[in-house]
Amino acid sequence: MASAKQDQGLNLDVWEKQIQFYREHLDIYIEDAFAPIKLKDCQHIMARAIGNNVESDIVCSRGLGKTWVAALCGFAICTLYPGTIVVVCSATAGQAALVFGKLKLLVEQNKNMANELVATNSKNLVQLDKDSGKCTFKNGSTMSSHTLESMRGLRAKVIIIDEALEVDQEMLDSIVSPLKNYKRDISYNYDFKDYTSKTITLTSACEKSNPFYQTFKRVVKDMGNGFPSFACALDYRTAIEDGITDAEYFEQERAKLPASVFNMEYGTIFLGSSNNSAFPFDLTEKCRTLERVELEQPKNCKSRYVLSLDIATSKDKKADNAILSVIKFSEKTDGHFQKKLVKMKSHHGKGLDSLAEEVRKTYFLQFPNAERIIYDARGLGDSFGKFLDEAWIDPATGKEYPPLVHDDEVSYIENALPVLHAVRAVQTLNQRVATHLRVALEKRTLELPINSRVLQAKLANPEEPISMSMEEVAVFHEADALQYELGNIVAKVSTSGNYLYDTPSAAMHKDRYSSLGYACDYIAELEEANIKKHQRRKTCIGFATAF
């Protein structure tokens, strides 16, 4: 080995020490080897941890540049470990290829990085199309992107999992475990010892019901026990402090999103159900199957709808929102109703007159098939009906629409429509709402919009392109917040021995729960009458057949 060192004219002992230092300080290597690239403090932490651990779970706020860091770290590992195969995987091909989109830009802008690669099959150093990416290094390493499904049978030394929340954890475990046994196909003229395979996971926070949460907790425990594992959660304040993204961006996102969604995606807070939740996450998650929402009813639509409003007018940032929900329902063969939450919209700090305007627009212009407009008549709601008992002129078209009045009283207002259905959220209604909602979720007769992260993956999938407006996407975010609210509704026993359904803390909201619950309770009453009618019809048919 000494003669080999002399022949090459290199002091390999010194060189080996330098390489070893860089392998243990991946962040320093990135800045030294690929100048003028500079990492922020949090990115130094991520890169250093990735270089020194066999398993790294990094939960990041959106806007922290985690995909950029993943691309850099994968590239750096390939250059430091000859003959290494790095695989980037995700739930969809489009998502996996995003890392290579970042990598392609880096290589185009950095001569030192470009110098590490060889062109194959084309003049491009980084091969990139809509659903795949690959680059080949001069030292025999490769880096490529794959969907989880396409990884079976592959060899890899380093696996980078982007947006791990969308990846099937059981499938991931079955695929990753065999990969960890792979040894690099490389030899030297002196003893060679391979390094332990690495798994790098980058994602945003999720619901505690997501399998990744348990994985993250295990990695945290392993790190505490001294294993070569690393876990961290970096929220939006880190991005502001390090100058990666300005505070204005996050304030804009906070204004657009429900608080629970913002806390999860930007605050890196894992959201879960309260102990003894009446509507735990695993129950509601099974009902999140609705892939399309409705901003208005389809043309020539004969479907039945109900509008439901939970009233709130305070402008205080911590106050409840007013929530207007639209539930679509249809009869099943057994007389029961299948229900779909097709729209949910929150309004903050609007007065009763403004809320009345929103109700009119939603009813007359978007969902004229709605049979009832339900609202809580207690407190502020006591006078809400008075804002609707006059004719309304659409400011956009000048068309006049009739007044809206209550369905349980005789009205002397000309041409008035008796569609307002006032409820009072007293104890009996509280219990009924919780019962009917629980039954609907258990029997899956209530469909909720899919998780917004699942939606984003679908929108980014080039294989099945779909388009959706920002207003439609907002409904899916509202469903995320609804699920969080449902998960924090618990049953409390009153002094009289009755169950009360409420949040554990007054600081938690339940306005979406109430809006949906009022509608489900109303539909349940219709359903009960419909089932009796259905059964009578079956009995009559059976009686007639007998004769």
Give the rounded overall mean pLDDT.
86
Total separate domains: 2
Low-confidence stretches: 1-7
What's the Cα radius of gyration?
Answer: 29 Å
Q: What is the structural class?
A: alpha/beta
Question: CATH topology of the largest domain, what is it called?
Answer: Nucleotidyltransferase, domain 5
Tell me the major beta sheet: 9 strands, mixed
The count of helical stretches stands at: 18
The portion of residues assigned to helices is 40-55%
Quick one: how many beta strands? 21
* CATH C-level label of the largest domain: Alpha Beta
**What's the end-to-end separation, in Å?**
103 Å
Global shape: elongated
Can you walk me through this structure?
- With 547 residues, the protein is α/β, with parallel strands linked by helices.
- The protein has two domains: 24-260, P-loop containing nucleotide triphosphate hydrolases (Rossmann fold), CATH 3.40.50.300; 281-533, Nucleotidyltransferase, domain 5 (2-Layer Sandwich).
- Helices cover 41% and strands 20% of the residues.
- It contains 18 helices and 21 strands.
- The strands form four sheets. Strands 1, 2, 3, 4, 5, 6, 7, 8 and 9 form a nine-stranded mixed sheet that branches. The protein has an eight-stranded mixed sheet with strand order 10-19-13-12-11-14-18-17, sandwiched between helices.
- Helix 3 (26-33) packs across helix 5 (66-80).
- The chain starts with a helix and ends with a helix.
- The relative contact order is 0.10.
